[in-house]
Amino acid sequence: xxxxxxxxxxxxxxxxxxxxxxxxxxxxxxxxxxxxxxxxxxxxxxxxxxxxxxxxxxxxxxxxxxxxxxxxxxxxxxxxxxxxxxxxxxxxxxxxxxxxxxxxxxxxxxxxxxxxxxxxxxxxxxxxxxxxxxxxxxxxxxxxxxxxxxxxxxxxxxxxxxxxxxxxxxxxxxxxxxxxxxxxxxxxxxxxxxxxxxxxxxxxxxxxxxxxxxxxxxxxxxxxxxxxxxxxxxxxxxxxxxxxxxxxxxxxxxxxxxxxxxxxxxxxxxxxxxxxxxxxxxxxxxxxxxxxxxxxxxxxxxxxxxxxxxxxxxxxxxxxxxxxxxxxxxxxxxxxxxxxxxxxxxxxxxxxxxxxxxxxxxxxxxxxxxxxxxxxxxxxxxxxxxxxxxxxxxxxxxxxxxxxxxxxxxxxxxxxxxxxxxxxxxxxxxxxxxxxxxxxxxxxxxxxxxxxxxxxxxxxxxxxxxxxxxxxxxxxxxxxxxxxxxx
Length: 487
Known about the structure:
The chain is α+β, with helices and mostly antiparallel strands and 487 residues long. A hairpin with a 3-residue loop joins strand 4 and strand 5 (139-140). Helix content is 40%, strand content 15%. Helix 1 packs across helix 3 (27-45).
């Protein structure tokens, strides 16, 4: 088993799959090693919603797991609007009870067809409306760099497991930064595709008016690109469809990055970036310049308070719609007491807005997309901090007091992450790249956004940054690596 652990320590998911396809490693061997790694770190991280070991063992024996781009590679599915047949579908909430999905998300099906084996589901906050993965139902998911700190949200379980080297990649989704925020907190790579590039059905029609999209958190850029190759493309009845790359995303990531015009944005009023956050983004800017790119300091064409007001109209109405649907599904309305204070605040202030107001909010964010598209006629890429400060301590970044106003909740979350949600609204691809660690040894990501449908440029840049300043050798205190034992 130690030799298998050594392979897990030294290969990304794409590399492990090649070993499976050539018969050097069996899917069952990889799975048992990953199970051992989950058991090793889970008591410290609390990143797993449900362990699905027995079913995964059966899946690992299937002939189909020995083929595909990710043949036999174990991973986890985020427990948030991403049904995995037979698994709990809690969405981080007590209100969802013990409901198990009798169908599967299209992205899950595509991952399965690519050969992935699902060892479990990963944690998320209630309904994904938090930048920290803390919930009444599951407690706090902890950061492997410092377990007194948050792993970020809402894909915090996925990020913690990848950072701790349990799996090379884990599925997640992102409606306002939920892949990129935890990637920044945990020192791994988080990529959000363009609106409409990824399948969201059949459960989700258009999550948060099209702001939400699935993908993954990975350690390597190569895995993120190869995962896009096996999952991207509209599913049946999709309301949006982004253009697919003409060749492959993996080829784009492996090709050279042309000289880019990069817009550097350090602040977004009214919330400033901390000294550490500025150090991180300026480090990224200097690295880009050293690689032949030009960087120009500028400002974004948006007023953040106005933007957030429109976004929470959409989140509030969408949350009300989901709560009502959940009540119909279970045959009993959801009582407010079953929901967390943060959700109750959102429902109280934005859950019953008029339809015309919701429609106006959707029109507003689509207009913003056109404004940003015009802005990007001058630049190829926008560079900002992913977050304004280092990962917060457990309990510091969640609205557990129902007396708070929604404005106070907005400030609590978006003073921490003012940039990420913009690019969900505009539909642009965006990524958090782990290029900087604070003096205390905590990661802070650099955030890059590209033109709509231009994943290729971002992936090529990410791969160039990864080669110039590799991050895989930086391993957190809580980790599942066992190479020393193997030697």
